[in-house]
Specification:
single chain, 309 residues, alpha/beta, four-stranded parallel beta sheet, two-stranded antiparallel sheet, 15 helices, 6 strands, 8% strand, globular
Length: 309
Protein backbone atom coordinates (compact mmCIF):
# COMPACT_ATOMS: atom_id res chain seq x y z
CA UNK A 1 0.00 0.00 0.00
CA UNK A 2 1.40 3.42 -0.94
CA UNK A 3 2.03 6.21 1.54
CA UNK A 4 -0.53 8.40 -0.25
CA UNK A 5 -3.24 5.76 0.12
CA UNK A 6 -2.55 5.55 3.84
CA UNK A 7 -2.33 9.31 4.29
CA UNK A 8 -5.65 9.97 2.50
CA UNK A 9 -8.02 8.55 5.14
CA UNK A 10 -5.86 9.90 7.97
CA UNK A 11 -5.89 13.40 6.48
CA UNK A 12 -9.65 13.15 5.99
CA UNK A 13 -10.22 12.31 9.65
CA UNK A 14 -7.81 14.99 10.87
CA UNK A 15 -9.45 17.69 8.76
CA UNK A 16 -12.95 16.81 9.90
CA UNK A 17 -11.71 16.67 13.48
CA UNK A 18 -10.14 20.13 13.11
CA UNK A 19 -13.41 21.57 11.83
CA UNK A 20 -15.36 19.83 14.59
CA UNK A 21 -13.15 21.21 17.32
CA UNK A 22 -13.17 24.76 15.93
CA UNK A 23 -16.81 25.02 14.91
CA UNK A 24 -19.43 26.52 17.15
CA UNK A 25 -22.88 25.15 17.81
CA UNK A 26 -24.20 21.96 19.29
CA UNK A 27 -21.84 19.55 20.94
CA UNK A 28 -21.05 16.20 19.38
CA UNK A 29 -22.49 13.11 21.10
CA UNK A 30 -20.93 11.96 24.34
CA UNK A 31 -22.27 8.40 24.01
CA UNK A 32 -22.93 5.87 21.27
CA UNK A 33 -24.99 2.69 21.45
CA UNK A 34 -23.27 0.81 18.66
CA UNK A 35 -25.35 -2.35 18.48
CA UNK A 36 -24.79 -4.58 16.59
CA UNK A 37 -28.10 -4.54 14.65
CA UNK A 38 -31.18 -6.39 15.95
CA UNK A 39 -30.26 -6.21 19.63
CA UNK A 40 -33.02 -3.93 20.91
CA UNK A 41 -31.53 -0.69 19.61
CA UNK A 42 -34.82 0.67 18.22
CA UNK A 43 -36.45 0.18 21.61
CA UNK A 44 -33.49 1.82 23.33
CA UNK A 45 -33.69 4.76 20.95
CA UNK A 46 -37.36 5.26 21.79
CA UNK A 47 -36.95 5.19 25.57
CA UNK A 48 -33.75 7.27 25.55
CA UNK A 49 -35.14 9.87 23.13
CA UNK A 50 -37.39 11.09 25.94
CA UNK A 51 -34.40 11.71 28.24
CA UNK A 52 -31.47 12.55 25.95
CA UNK A 53 -30.87 14.39 22.70
CA UNK A 54 -30.73 11.88 19.84
CA UNK A 55 -30.88 12.36 16.05
CA UNK A 56 -34.36 13.36 14.87
CA UNK A 57 -36.45 12.33 13.00
CA UNK A 58 -34.03 9.70 11.68
CA UNK A 59 -32.70 7.19 14.20
CA UNK A 60 -29.46 6.38 12.33
CA UNK A 61 -27.45 9.12 10.65
CA UNK A 62 -24.81 6.66 9.37
CA UNK A 63 -22.38 9.58 9.69
CA UNK A 64 -19.34 7.74 10.99
CA UNK A 65 -19.56 4.85 8.51
CA UNK A 66 -21.33 6.15 5.38
CA UNK A 67 -21.53 9.96 5.43
CA UNK A 68 -18.34 11.11 7.12
CA UNK A 69 -17.31 13.13 4.07
CA UNK A 70 -20.36 15.38 4.55
CA UNK A 71 -18.73 16.96 7.59
CA UNK A 72 -19.76 17.70 11.13
CA UNK A 73 -22.13 20.53 10.20
CA UNK A 74 -24.25 17.96 8.36
CA UNK A 75 -24.05 15.65 11.37
CA UNK A 76 -24.86 18.31 13.97
CA UNK A 77 -27.97 19.32 12.03
CA UNK A 78 -29.59 16.02 13.07
CA UNK A 79 -29.62 17.03 16.75
CA UNK A 80 -32.47 19.40 17.50
CA UNK A 81 -33.50 20.16 21.04
CA UNK A 82 -32.46 21.61 24.38
CA UNK A 83 -28.79 22.41 24.68
CA UNK A 84 -28.55 21.09 28.24
CA UNK A 85 -29.47 17.50 27.32
CA UNK A 86 -26.96 14.67 27.08
CA UNK A 87 -26.26 14.11 23.36
CA UNK A 88 -25.92 10.62 21.92
CA UNK A 89 -26.59 8.33 18.98
CA UNK A 90 -28.02 4.84 18.70
CA UNK A 91 -26.10 3.49 15.72
CA UNK A 92 -26.00 -0.31 15.36
CA UNK A 93 -24.07 -0.31 12.08
CA UNK A 94 -21.03 1.20 13.83
CA UNK A 95 -20.24 -1.93 15.84
CA UNK A 96 -18.54 -3.88 13.04
CA UNK A 97 -17.11 -0.84 11.22
CA UNK A 98 -13.43 -0.16 11.79
CA UNK A 99 -13.82 3.22 10.07
CA UNK A 100 -16.65 4.26 12.37
CA UNK A 101 -14.71 3.23 15.47
CA UNK A 102 -11.59 5.12 14.42
CA UNK A 103 -13.51 8.25 13.39
CA UNK A 104 -15.48 8.35 16.65
CA UNK A 105 -12.20 8.02 18.57
CA UNK A 106 -10.73 10.92 16.62
CA UNK A 107 -13.69 13.26 17.09
CA UNK A 108 -15.00 12.11 20.48
CA UNK A 109 -12.09 10.37 22.26
CA UNK A 110 -13.91 10.36 25.60
CA UNK A 111 -17.12 8.86 24.23
CA UNK A 112 -19.00 6.23 26.20
CA UNK A 113 -19.72 3.15 24.08
CA UNK A 114 -22.51 0.64 24.72
CA UNK A 115 -22.55 -2.77 22.98
CA UNK A 116 -25.49 -5.17 23.24
CA UNK A 117 -25.01 -8.88 22.53
CA UNK A 118 -27.62 -11.45 21.57
CA UNK A 119 -27.64 -15.09 20.48
CA UNK A 120 -25.72 -14.57 17.21
CA UNK A 121 -27.74 -17.08 15.20
CA UNK A 122 -31.11 -15.62 16.20
CA UNK A 123 -29.68 -12.19 15.44
CA UNK A 124 -28.62 -13.25 11.93
CA UNK A 125 -32.14 -14.53 11.24
CA UNK A 126 -33.65 -11.27 12.50
CA UNK A 127 -31.25 -9.06 10.53
CA UNK A 128 -31.86 -11.11 7.40
CA UNK A 129 -35.63 -10.67 7.71
CA UNK A 130 -35.20 -6.92 8.15
CA UNK A 131 -32.97 -6.59 5.11
CA UNK A 132 -35.28 -8.65 2.94
CA UNK A 133 -38.39 -6.82 4.14
CA UNK A 134 -36.86 -3.45 3.22
CA UNK A 135 -35.51 -4.61 -0.13
CA UNK A 136 -31.89 -4.23 0.88
CA UNK A 137 -31.00 -7.68 -0.45
CA UNK A 138 -32.82 -10.07 -2.83
CA UNK A 139 -31.28 -13.38 -1.79
CA UNK A 140 -32.40 -16.45 0.08
CA UNK A 141 -31.03 -16.87 3.60
CA UNK A 142 -28.35 -19.29 2.46
CA UNK A 143 -27.26 -16.97 -0.36
CA UNK A 144 -27.27 -13.94 1.95
CA UNK A 145 -25.01 -15.65 4.48
CA UNK A 146 -22.36 -16.08 1.79
CA UNK A 147 -22.93 -12.79 -0.07
CA UNK A 148 -23.72 -10.20 2.61
CA UNK A 149 -20.64 -9.74 4.86
CA UNK A 150 -22.53 -7.77 7.52
CA UNK A 151 -24.62 -10.77 8.55
CA UNK A 152 -21.56 -12.63 9.81
CA UNK A 153 -19.13 -9.80 10.51
CA UNK A 154 -21.50 -8.09 12.95
CA UNK A 155 -21.72 -11.38 14.88
CA UNK A 156 -18.02 -11.47 15.72
CA UNK A 157 -18.74 -10.18 19.20
CA UNK A 158 -15.51 -11.02 21.00
CA UNK A 159 -13.28 -9.80 18.17
CA UNK A 160 -15.08 -6.50 17.77
CA UNK A 161 -15.50 -5.89 21.51
CA UNK A 162 -11.76 -6.24 22.01
CA UNK A 163 -11.21 -3.71 19.22
CA UNK A 164 -13.54 -1.20 20.90
CA UNK A 165 -11.78 -1.85 24.20
CA UNK A 166 -8.39 -1.31 22.58
CA UNK A 167 -9.52 2.00 21.06
CA UNK A 168 -11.48 3.49 23.99
CA UNK A 169 -10.37 1.52 27.04
CA UNK A 170 -12.31 -0.98 29.12
CA UNK A 171 -13.82 1.70 31.37
CA UNK A 172 -15.45 3.46 28.41
CA UNK A 173 -17.11 0.44 26.77
CA UNK A 174 -20.10 -1.24 28.39
CA UNK A 175 -21.05 -4.77 27.18
CA UNK A 176 -24.73 -5.59 27.74
CA UNK A 177 -26.94 -8.55 26.88
CA UNK A 178 -30.18 -8.63 24.97
CA UNK A 179 -31.47 -11.40 27.24
CA UNK A 180 -31.22 -8.98 30.19
CA UNK A 181 -33.26 -6.44 28.25
CA UNK A 182 -35.95 -9.05 27.59
CA UNK A 183 -36.01 -10.43 31.12
CA UNK A 184 -35.58 -7.22 33.13
CA UNK A 185 -35.85 -4.04 31.03
CA UNK A 186 -35.72 -1.77 34.08
CA UNK A 187 -32.40 -3.24 35.22
CA UNK A 188 -31.10 -2.92 31.68
CA UNK A 189 -31.95 0.78 31.27
CA UNK A 190 -30.68 1.55 34.78
CA UNK A 191 -27.28 0.16 33.80
CA UNK A 192 -27.26 2.15 30.56
CA UNK A 193 -28.39 5.36 32.28
CA UNK A 194 -25.66 5.07 34.93
CA UNK A 195 -23.03 4.46 32.28
CA UNK A 196 -23.93 7.32 29.92
CA UNK A 197 -24.41 9.76 32.78
CA UNK A 198 -28.13 10.48 32.98
CA UNK A 199 -30.57 10.13 35.85
CA UNK A 200 -32.30 6.81 36.23
CA UNK A 201 -35.92 6.75 35.10
CA UNK A 202 -38.83 4.37 35.52
CA UNK A 203 -40.13 2.63 32.44
CA UNK A 204 -43.84 3.01 31.76
CA UNK A 205 -46.30 0.29 30.82
CA UNK A 206 -46.16 1.46 27.21
CA UNK A 207 -42.35 1.21 27.24
CA UNK A 208 -42.60 -2.48 28.09
CA UNK A 209 -45.00 -3.05 25.20
CA UNK A 210 -42.88 -1.28 22.60
CA UNK A 211 -40.15 -3.90 22.27
CA UNK A 212 -40.11 -4.47 18.52
CA UNK A 213 -40.06 -7.74 16.64
CA UNK A 214 -39.18 -8.78 13.13
CA UNK A 215 -41.57 -11.73 13.44
CA UNK A 216 -44.44 -9.82 11.85
CA UNK A 217 -42.37 -8.78 8.84
CA UNK A 218 -43.03 -10.40 5.48
CA UNK A 219 -41.28 -10.44 2.16
CA UNK A 220 -42.12 -7.41 0.03
CA UNK A 221 -44.95 -7.79 -2.44
CA UNK A 222 -42.72 -6.26 -5.10
CA UNK A 223 -38.99 -6.38 -4.40
CA UNK A 224 -38.05 -3.69 -6.95
CA UNK A 225 -40.65 -1.24 -5.68
CA UNK A 226 -39.51 -1.75 -2.09
CA UNK A 227 -35.86 -1.56 -3.10
CA UNK A 228 -36.49 1.70 -4.96
CA UNK A 229 -38.32 3.19 -1.98
CA UNK A 230 -35.45 2.29 0.36
CA UNK A 231 -32.89 3.85 -1.97
CA UNK A 232 -35.03 6.97 -2.32
CA UNK A 233 -35.34 7.22 1.46
CA UNK A 234 -31.55 7.05 1.76
CA UNK A 235 -31.25 9.80 -0.87
CA UNK A 236 -33.58 12.08 1.09
CA UNK A 237 -31.80 11.39 4.37
CA UNK A 238 -28.41 12.22 2.89
CA UNK A 239 -29.80 15.63 1.94
CA UNK A 240 -31.27 16.28 5.39
CA UNK A 241 -34.81 15.75 4.14
CA UNK A 242 -35.53 13.22 6.86
CA UNK A 243 -38.93 14.76 7.57
CA UNK A 244 -40.22 13.61 4.18
CA UNK A 245 -39.16 10.04 4.95
CA UNK A 246 -40.76 10.25 8.38
CA UNK A 247 -44.06 11.52 6.96
CA UNK A 248 -44.27 8.68 4.44
CA UNK A 249 -43.24 6.09 7.02
CA UNK A 250 -46.01 7.19 9.39
CA UNK A 251 -48.70 7.36 6.70
CA UNK A 252 -50.81 4.75 4.92
CA UNK A 253 -48.42 5.04 1.95
CA UNK A 254 -45.96 2.79 3.75
CA UNK A 255 -48.21 -0.20 2.98
CA UNK A 256 -47.48 0.38 -0.71
CA UNK A 257 -43.75 -0.11 -0.18
CA UNK A 258 -43.44 -2.56 2.72
CA UNK A 259 -44.94 -5.97 3.29
CA UNK A 260 -47.69 -7.66 1.34
CA UNK A 261 -45.62 -10.67 0.37
CA UNK A 262 -45.46 -14.17 1.83
CA UNK A 263 -44.22 -14.91 5.33
CA UNK A 264 -40.59 -15.84 5.84
CA UNK A 265 -39.82 -19.54 5.89
CA UNK A 266 -38.17 -20.89 9.00
CA UNK A 267 -34.45 -21.58 8.61
CA UNK A 268 -33.52 -25.17 7.99
CA UNK A 269 -31.84 -27.15 10.80
CA UNK A 270 -28.78 -27.47 8.54
CA UNK A 271 -28.33 -23.71 8.21
CA UNK A 272 -28.88 -23.23 11.94
CA UNK A 273 -26.30 -25.89 12.82
CA UNK A 274 -23.81 -24.37 10.38
CA UNK A 275 -24.20 -20.92 11.94
CA UNK A 276 -23.93 -22.16 15.53
CA UNK A 277 -20.70 -23.92 14.63
CA UNK A 278 -19.42 -20.84 12.83
CA UNK A 279 -20.03 -18.53 15.79
CA UNK A 280 -18.93 -20.97 18.51
CA UNK A 281 -15.31 -19.67 18.79
CA UNK A 282 -16.55 -16.09 19.15
CA UNK A 283 -19.12 -17.12 21.76
CA UNK A 284 -16.54 -19.06 23.77
CA UNK A 285 -14.10 -16.15 23.66
CA UNK A 286 -16.85 -13.78 24.81
CA UNK A 287 -17.54 -16.14 27.71
CA UNK A 288 -13.87 -16.00 28.66
CA UNK A 289 -13.46 -12.25 28.55
CA UNK A 290 -16.78 -11.37 30.21
CA UNK A 291 -17.10 -14.33 32.59
CA UNK A 292 -20.67 -15.09 31.58
CA UNK A 293 -22.13 -18.49 30.76
CA UNK A 294 -23.33 -18.39 27.15
CA UNK A 295 -24.02 -22.10 26.70
CA UNK A 296 -27.43 -21.35 25.20
CA UNK A 297 -25.72 -19.59 22.29
CA UNK A 298 -23.64 -22.58 21.26
CA UNK A 299 -26.29 -24.93 19.90
CA UNK A 300 -30.02 -24.65 19.90
CA UNK A 301 -32.96 -25.77 17.73
CA UNK A 302 -33.76 -23.39 14.86
CA UNK A 303 -36.80 -21.80 16.41
CA UNK A 304 -37.46 -18.21 15.43
CA UNK A 305 -38.21 -16.52 18.71
CA UNK A 306 -39.50 -13.06 19.43
CA UNK A 307 -36.87 -10.51 18.44
CA UNK A 308 -36.41 -6.92 19.42
CA UNK A 309 -34.39 -4.12 17.94
Amino acid sequence: MSESSIAGPCNEISEVARVAKNSSGRMLPSFFIVGPPRTGTTWLHEVLSQRTLLPDPTKETRFFDNHFQRGTAWYRAHFKGAENQRVGEVAPTYFASNEARERIAELVPNARIVCVFRDPVERVFSLYRLKRAYGMIPWSLEEAISRDPELIESGKYATKLKEWWHTFGHESVLPMFYEDLRQNPQYFVNSVADFIGISRFNLTASDFKRIHSSESMTLPKNYYRTRGATLMADWFKARQLDNIVSIVKNSSLIKYFLGGGPAFAKPSPEISAKLYELFRPEVEELENILGRDLSAWKSRPAVLQSAAG
